[in-house]
Every structure is written in structure tokens, then in C-alpha cells.
Design brief:
298 residues, MetI-like fold, 14 helices, flat, disordered N terminus
Length: 298
């Protein structure tokens, strides 16, 4: 049974991710330069942020010159200062990323462990299975709604920072947990129909022994394959957890920048998040390649 059927080789994935990152970085300066040169509504806010990055004399240059100046600053990770705080954008963004990575790290562990256990429960033909279905229904509530429900249930103001981070990580991991649990249960059911499993059971091996020998290693590998998509989900929904819980991570900082038209901070967050997300995906896929050399060639 080829569980990796349809997966692209690591070298192809690496090339696609690097090309996508390059296109994204090249595209970042397009919107502010277009808004400034075309005179669109709200351009005065973007103008202030753009000129803060490329210099006070930038407004006398043509659109292409402005674009290349701004792109050069982005490539060198020189985002200038925040228009609202006056602080350097790069340290602000790196600190916010550090906080968010801690939250995501907790969420990944919670999702993997809870999803694995939930999948094992979901294949049982007893009351435990129905109990997990009820839990899964609750965990499938939209993350922003779940955030506020948890805030109503717990007094996070009286909790330590670590406790708040753990609760927020559980909320962030809720939906991926249900997806992983369903995938684990589906994998186990399909593997139980394979000749290998049937023959081992016919030879007198216990169900527990056969599941541990055949199913668990493949299920764990399938869960690891899902990690890149889970991490991308976490980055996409960070703001819906960080903002309600008052966590000063990348999601809250980005929301702060958008509300105040702090374009240097917006550009800094967008660029560093894209770079970091690409690096994380490459590291995860390289780790999976080491676990399964077949991924090197597809």
C-alpha cells in the first residue's frame, strides 16, 4: 500500500517553495508603489509608509525607481521604523515571531498527540467512539468563536503567561485535532483491510500486536506528512487566537499595523512571515524525506 502516492519529490517541492517565495517578495512592493503613483484613495497613508522606507526624496522619482528602491530595502530586511511607535520594525517583528512560534509549537504538539489518541478512540465500536464524536463537534466550532467561549469560561487575567499560552494553543489546535483524528481513524480502518493485517490475525497474532506492528508506524508517518498544512493553518488563524487572548504575537502585531496604516510594519511582518514559513516547510519536508527516502524521488 503506497501511502505516499501522488506526493512530489522533495527537490520539486523545494524548487516550488523557493520560486513562490521569490514571487511573493517581488510582489510586495507593487501595491504601495501603485497606490502612490496612481493616486488611489488612502494613498496618503501608504505614501508616508513608503517614503519612510525609501527616503524623503522618493516622492520625486518615477514609479519603477520607487519600486526598485523599496524592493532593495525589503531584500536587505531594512524595514525602517514603525510609523506609530517609532521603534525599529525588524526587532519588533522578530519578537512577535518568537512569541507566535512558541504558541504554534505548543499547538502542533497538542494537535498531534490529541489527534492520534482521538483517532484510536474513533475506531472503537463502543461508547468511547460516540464520546469522541461529541468532542469533535465542539472542537469544530470556528476558532474565533471558540476563543471567546474559552475566555468566558476561564479568567485568563488571573493566569500566568504560560497558562494563557497553553489555553490559546489548545484553541488554535482544536480544528486540526479533529482533522488528524479522522485521518488516523480512516488510515487504521483501511490498513485493517490489507492482506498483511488479515494474515497476521489469521496466524493468531492479537489485534493489539498487529495494529502496533502495521498500523501505528504508517499512521504516524501520515500524520507527519500533514504537518506543513497544519503549520500553514496555524499561521493563517493566529490573529483569531492572539487578539482575543491578548498575546502580542505576529497576528496581533499585524492587526495593529493594519488598523494604524503602519506600512513599514506591514511590509516587515509580511516579508519575515513568508520567509519563516517557507523555511519551516522546507525543514519539515526534509525531515520527512529522512524518515522515508522514497520522497526523494516521489
Amino acid at each position: 500500500m503506497n501511502v505516499d502516492q501522488g506526493r512530489m519529490p522533495f527537490s520539486v517541492n523545494l524548487g516550488i517553495r523557493m520560486i513562490s517565495l521569490a514571487f511573493a517578495i517581488v510582489a510586495i512592493p507593487v501595491l504601495p508603489i501603485f497606490a502612490v503613483t496612481a493616486g488611489t484613495d488612502g494613498a496618503q497613508y501608504i505614501m508616508a509608509g513608503t517614503l519612510a522606507l525609501i527616503g524623503e526624496q522618493g516622492d520625486t522619482a518615477s514609479g519603477p525607481v520607487l519600486y526598485w528602491r523599496l524592493l532593495n530595502r525589503i531584500i536587505h530586511l531594512d524595514f525602517g521604523v514603525s510609523l506609530t511607535t517609532g521603534a525599529q520594525v525588524l526587532p519588533m517583528t522578530l519578537e512577535a515571531l518568537r512569541v507566535s512560534l512558541g504558541l504554534i509549537g505548543f499547538a502542533v504538539v497538542i494537535a498531534m498527540l490529541t489527534g492520534f489518541v482521538g483517532g484510536l478512540i474513533a475506531v472503537r465500536p463502543d461508547a468511547w467512539r460516540w464520546g469522541w464524536k461529541m468532542i469533535g463537534t465542539v472542537l469544530s466550532v470556528p476558532v474565533i468563536v471558540l476563543s471567546y467561549l474559552v475566555l468566558y469560561a476561564f479568567d485568563t487575567d488571573m493566569m500566568s503567561t504560560e497558562s494563557t499560552m497553553m489555553i490559546a494553543a489548545w484553541v488554535l489546535a482544536a480544528y486540526p485535532t479533529t482533522v488528524l483524528a479522522m485521518n488516523v481513524a480512516r488510515s487504521i480502518r483501511s490498513l485493517k483491510a490489507t492482506p498483511f493485517y488479515v494474515n497476521h490475525r489469521a496466524q493468531g497474532f492479537s489485534e493489539r500486536h498487529t495494529v502496533m506492528l502495521l498500523c501505528i508506524p504508517i499512521v504516524i508517518k501520515n500524520m507527519l506528512i500533514a504537518v506543513p498544512n497544519i503549520i500553514a493553518y496555524f499561521f493563517g488563524f493566529l490573529v483569531f487566537v492572539e487578539a482575543p487572548f491578548g498575546i502580542n504575537g505576529i497576528g496581533t502585531t499585524f492587526l495593529y499595523a493594519v488598523k494604524r496604516f503602519d506600512y513599514p510594519l506591514i511590509i516587515g511582518i509580511s516579508t519575515l512571515t513568508l520567509v519563516l514559513l517557507t523555511l519551516v516547510m522546507i525543514i519539515v519536508e526534509a525531515g520527512m524525506m529522512l524518515l522515508d527516502p522514497r520522497l526523494r524521488t516521489g
